[in-house]
C-alpha cells in the first residue's frame, strides 16, 4: 500500500476533518462541540450559541496529534489584535469568539451592553483580543462562517472589557455569572482567563406591562385571576397604577369575567391607597373584609400585614373583626394574641395565646403558639 493511500485511509478517523455538508448530521469539525446558553432577564431572553474548542487540541490545522496548548492560547492560538485569517474578502479579521461557524448573541428585546444600547436581534459575536483589553463586537451579520467575512461596516456595537485570571477551563465556556431582575453578567471563560460584560434591561417593568396587555387580550383575559395578577404586578412595581386600577376593576365586575372576592377587592384597595385616594381605599378594604366568601385566614393575614407596617391599632381592629365574625375559628385567637401583644396588653394576649395553642391545627402551629405562650407569660410576669 502506498504512503499516500495509507494517509488517505487514516485521515477521517484521526482528525474528524471531513467536510460539514448542509443537511447531514456529522461530528463537528475538529471535535469542537456546539453549545448554547440562555438566560432570562425578567421577560428578556438572552442566548449565546457557539462551538467550544478545548485547550488540548490539534497541533495544527489538519493535524491528528492532540497537544496541550495551555499557555499558548492567548496571543498564540488566538492572536492579539486583528489578524489575517487566510480566507475571505478582507485581509484582517477578529477572533470568532469560539470555533467553526459564527458565534451568535441573541436578545429578544433591546438591552444595554456595558451601558451602551443594543437593539433586539441576533448578532455575530467577535472579539479583538489584546493583553490588557478585549473589544467585544456585535455584528449585524449573524449568518456568516466564523470571522472570515467580517465587515466592520456591519458593527452594531463595540465595547471594551478587561480580561482577568480565572480558574482553569478546559473547554471554552460562556455562562451568566450574576443575575438580577433587570441585569445579568455574561462571561467567557477559557484556559486561565475570563472576560465579563454587563447586560442591562432598561425599564424592565415597561416590558412586563406591555406583555401583560397582550396576554390579557388572549384566552388568559377570560379569567378574573389574570386581571388581578396583572394589577398586582403593577402595584408591586409601582408602575401604571391608573391602568392597574382598571385591570383590578375588570377583575371584580367585568361581564362574564368579573368575580368579586377578597383577593381582587384588597388589590383594588391597595392601588387606591397608592393613588392617594384614601377614603375609596378604606371603603373597598372594608368591603373585602366583610365579603361573604372572605375566610378567617385572609382576615388574619391582612391584620398581620398591618402589624408588619407598624399599624398596631388598625391591626387589632381587624383581629377583633375576625373574632366577631368567625368566633373560635382558627386563627382568630392567634390574631388577638399578636395584636394585644403589640399593644402591650400581655395578660389578655396570653389568654388568647393559650386558646390558640389548644386549637392549633398541626404540630408546627402548636409549637409556635406554645412558644408564644412562654413569651407572653414572661412578659405578663406570671
Features:
six-stranded antiparallel β-sheet; 11 helices; alpha+beta; disordered N terminus
Walk me through this protein's architecture.
The structure is a single chain. This protein is of the alpha+beta class. It folds into three domains: 30-200, no CATH class; 206-275; 295-382, Serine Threonine Protein Phosphatase 5, Tetratricopeptide repeat, CATH 1.25.40. Helix content is 39%, strand content 24%. It has eleven helices and twelve strands. It is elongated.
List the helices and strands and how they pair.
Layout (H helix, E strand, L loop, with lengths): L2 H13 L17 E9 L2 E9 L3 E3 L7 E3 L35 E4 L3 E3 L2 E3 L2 E8 L5 E6 L15 E7 L2 E17 L2 E18 L3 H13 L7 H14 L3 H13 L8 H13 L3 H13 L5 H13 L3 H15 L5 H12 L2 H13 L4 H18 L2
Antiparallel strand pairs: 1-2, 2-5, 3-4, 5-8, 6-7, 6-12, 8-9, 9-10, 11-12
Helix pairs in contact: 2-3, 3-4, 3-5, 4-5, 5-6, 7-8, 7-9, 8-9, 9-10, 10-11
Main sheet specs: 6 strands, antiparallel
Poorly predicted tracts of residues: 1-18
Q: Strand content of the residues, in percent? A: 15-25%
- Domain count, please report it: 3
Structural category is alpha+beta
**What sort of overall outline do the alpha carbons produce when their principal axes are compared?**
elongated
Amino- and carboxy-terminal Cα gap:
104 Å
Provide the gyration radius in Å: 32 Å
Count up the helices: 11
